[in-house]
Amino acid sequence: MALEDEERDEILTLTDSQLAQVAAFVNNYPNVELTYSLNNSDSLISGVKQKITIQLTRDVEPENLQVTSEKYPFDKLESWWLVLGEVSKKELYAIKKVTLNKETQQYELEFDTPTSGKHNLTIWCVCDSYLDADKELSFEINVK
Q1: DSSP string of the chain?
Q2: In a domain, 3, yes or no
Q3: According to the model, what pLDDT value does residue 1 have?
Q4: Which residues have C-beta within 8 Å of that of residue 98, sequence separation ≥ 6?
Q5: Within a domain: residue 120?
Q6: Low-confidence ranges of the chain (pLDDT < 70)
Q7: Buried (b) or exposed (e) across 64-80, using 16+ Cβ within 10 A?
Q8: InterPro entries attached here (predicted)?
Q9: Residue 23: inside a domain, yes or no?
């Protein structure tokens, strides 16, 4: 539901300072898209080291990574965890801590290819600073 500025201001009853804090939070909240590429995905062999390239794209390049929150007792910089695993087997294949200080960045995770057969893997991109900013992407691989 869209409100006119006057109606919104009357309902919210926020001071100018509080409105500025809300605007700062909304403007800094990370919106991230997650994609991946897996070389030789049609000829994966069990036990062989494999690299997966993960691309993270923000909607805008951040001016800085300072977290907008009064809950931290100190200055906090935004960080992310890239995690690769298989939920059904409760296995973790790779994990890496990264920062997203550009609009688009690529990271490589190295992992040992699981046993032969079909596997449903998941990539998680977990933010250590903002709730509900995390991303998740599942895909299937067939290992020979």
Answers
A1: ----HHHHHHHH---HHHHHHHHHHHHHS--EEEEEEETTTTSB-TT-EEEEEEEEEESS--S--B---SSSSS--B--EEEEEEEGGGTEEEEEEEE---SSEEEEEEEEE--SSEEEEEEEEEEESSSTT--EEEEEEEEE-
A2: no
A3: 53
A4: 56, 79, 80, 81, 82, 105, 107
A5: yes
A6: 1
A7: eeebbeeeeeeeeebeb
A8: C2_domain_sf, Ig_E-set, Sec63-dom
A9: no
Which of 81, 109, 106 minimizes the C-alpha distance to 94?
A: 109
Phi, psi of 108 (to 5 degrees): -110, 135
- The answer to whether residue 52 sits within a structural domain is yes
For residues 123 and 111, what is the distance between their CA atoms, to the nearest angstrom?
Answer: 12
Range of the domain at 97: 30-143
Residue type, 90: K
Q: How many domains in the chain?
A: 1
CATH (domain of 91) = 2.60.40.150
Identify the pLDDT of residue 41: 84
